[in-house]
Amino acid sequence: MAKKKITKRTEIINAAIRLFSRFSFQEISISAIAREASCGHSLVYHYFSNVNEIYDAAFSKVQQAVSPFFANIKKSNLAPELTFVGIITKFVEALKSDLNLAFYTQFIISALGPNSREIKKIQKDWRNSLRALIIKGQETNRFIQTLSVNEFLDALNYSISGLISSLIFANVKRNSVSASQIYLLFLKGGQ
User: Fold this and answer.
1) pLDDT score of 112
2) Cα(13)–Cα(17) distance, rounded to whole angstroms?
3) Is 118 in contact with 59 (CB distance < 8 Å)?
4) Within 10 Å of residue 7's Cβ, how many Cβ atoms?
5) CB-based burial of residue 64 (10 Å sphere; 0-12 exposed, 13-18 middle, 19+ buried)?
6) Could you give the C-alpha distances from 107 to 25, 66, 121, 132, 191, in angstroms and in order?
7) pLDDT in tens, 35-53
8) Using CB atoms within 10 A of its CB, is residue 158 exposed (0-12), middle (13-18) or buried (19+)?
9) pLDDT over 70 (residue 174)
10) What is the pLDDT of residue 97?
11) What is the mean pLDDT of residues 112-119?
12) The predicted structure's pLDDT at residue 2
């Protein structure tokens, strides 16, 4: 399979996503993005008029990249624990092959930019999809029941956030990450 050519515009967007994931929108400048993308200011300005325009392009790219992980929760006919394990496993395996996904996820988790309303909507959609799955899993006695649904969601969010932070900030090796480190915390033991 031929490797897809990455354009300089895409490199600039990816550089911006890395910065937007780690810093507030107000701290990011064209200069910072150019440095992160290893290019000159003029090349950034060739593709984008300002930081807001870059942020919009970054938001679109992130939205397209992360939406498939939660798109099928509502449609799944599998048992809730299998759907849950599948989502977590698919996400962790994707992180192992593409570190950009860590930055994309942090971009959504942090919601620090001008599109925060749209990002909050994505967060709410994810939370509602997971909430329905958790309720179903607790009703069928497959998920731990010592946590309320909101506590379960918060614990899951902290687990994912910790994983993402370790990959972005602590440079943890991606191959050392295991999906079972996350999902086993929430599944009820065999009966």
Assistant:
1) 66
2) 6
3) yes
4) 10
5) exposed
6) 11, 10, 14, 24, 40
7) 999 999 999 999 999 999 9
8) exposed
9) no
10) 84
11) 72
12) 41
DSSP 8-state class, residue 25 = G
Is residue 150 classed exposed, middle or buried when 0-12, 13-18 and 19+ CB atoms within 10 A define those classes?
A: exposed
pTM across the whole model: 0.80
Q: Find the distance separating the first CA and the last CA of the chain, reported in whole Å.
A: 46
- d(CA 77, CA 80) in angstroms, rounded, equals 8
Alpha helices by DSSP H, listed for the chain, are: 8-22, 30-37, 41-47, 51-66, 68-71, 80-97, 100-110, 116-139, 149-168, 180-183
Q: How far is CA 186 from CA 83, 118, 175, in A?
A: 13, 29, 22
pLDDT (0 to 100) of residue 1 = 39
Euclidean distance between CA atoms 138 and 132, whole angstroms: 10
Amino acid present at 78: L
The better pLDDT of the pair 15, 189 is held by 15
- Single-letter amino acid, residue 66: V
Instruction: Give me the residue label for tokens 């910072």.
Output: 32
Q: Which 8-state DSSP code applies to residue 143?
A: B
Q: How far from 155 is each of 3, 47, 183, CA to CA, in Å?
A: 38, 40, 11
